[in-house]
Amino acid sequence: MSYKILLFDLDDTLLDFTANEIYSLNKLFHQHGYTFSDELFGVYNSVNKQLWTDYENGTIALEEVLNSRFSETLLKLGKTVDGIEWENQYRELLGNGHQLMDGAFELCQSLSVSHRLFVITNGITKTQIKRLKHAGLYRFFEDIFDSQSIGFQKPSKEFFDYVIGHIKDFEIREALIIGDSLNTDIKGGLLSGIDTCWINSRLQKCSAEIQSTYTITSLTELCAICGLEHNA
């Protein structure tokens, strides 16, 4: 298949969100006098994942995810904090983090010469654009599509209908979604009829229900799918 339009997820696909998250959370909790332990991260991670799941299922608004995740985390530890204040501080720290996944810069640089590149993300507009610019990737992309601006999130068909409708000369057969999440990126492709490439870098178990057109374990493998020769 000859793909010309590449729709990239951002976090843990091109940018190492996990590394950025740990670094930012560590600084945030230390600023407030807390030792950021594995136990504390476990509590936060549990709260945060449930809120994002609720958001992706359409049961709560994005603002509720962002403004309550820290207050709910600390409440489990018997503390009352201003969740909005903590979120604003965290957002600032997170926006300054731009750790790249291995090979991401070189891949985007090469592909941008012969393909049309776009970002599709469930992240926050201002934060994601800032991180892309700091990482040096922003110039390679024709447009950035994020759930906050669109009003719908991956994997909803509404999100991808918006993307399709706002890319000039879009042809489904020429498009490929690239991402690390089966439940948002790959499922979104299935719902919208767009081919998908699942980056399974953590060697997760495959899903019988959510099947990707391609499965790779590193970004460099995308070169062959897109007709580029990879120089090691």
UniProtKB/TrEMBL annotation:
The keyword rRNA-binding does not apply. Keywords: Hydrolase. InterPro entries: HAD-like_sf, HAD-SF_hydro_IA, HAD-SF_hydro_IA_YjjG/PynA, HAD_sf, PGP-like_dom2, Pyrimidine_5'-ntase_YjjG. GO terms for molecular function: 5'-nucleotidase activity. The keyword Hydrolase applies. Transmembrane segments: none annotated. This is HAD hydrolase, subfamily IA. It comes from Desulfosporosinus meridiei (strain ATCC BAA-275 / DSM 13257 / KCTC 12902 / NCIMB 13706 / S10). The lineage of its organism: Bacteria, Bacillati, Bacillota, Clostridia, Eubacteriales.
